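Changelog-linked ticket: zinc ion example.
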Amino acid sequence: MKSKCRGANLNFESSEIKRCVRVLKEIDFELAYLVLLTREGLKPLSRWEKPLAGDGLELLRQMGLLTKQIRRTVKTGKEVVETIFSKLPAYLGLYEQRFGNRPIDKSAQTRRFEGFLFGYPPCCVKEYIRKPYAPNNLGAQEQEILFHWACRDCKITPVLLGAYKSVYNSLNSF
Ligand SMILES: [Zn+2]
């Protein structure tokens, strides 16, 4: 058995991928979940805001993802480094072009663009901008495994949920 997992051609069940996911889970369960969602194509691009060292980045690459670290500033002027990852080089480029070396902001314009990159349904993004966390029809556990807040009577989220659930549940098998 090889000690490293590499390449995007490996299937989801391969033992090397499983090893990578196990290590990612040890770093942070949510990171492992985001990596799998992105690897499966359910999220075109994901952002990790906590620090991620060389080994963590290497794991993402071994899982077949492209990574980039983006410098941003917060209101106090302090610099923060975000890690973005995707299978799509153009999406990393779009993120860097729009947000690289720029202050972090939560404007409607930013939320719309982030929603597009992160694979959020546009209806949910629109509703969230209008009224964050407005009541929806999802159960708490369903809402919990999503990264966007679903709009009421969403027509896209229930379809997405099935796919998210199977990725989420698969994490327990690693
Ligand atoms: Zn929606």
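Closing comment: Example verified and attached. The helical segments are 15-27, 29-39, 54-62, 89-99, 108-118, 122-130, 140-144, 157-170. The chain has a mean pLDDT of 91.
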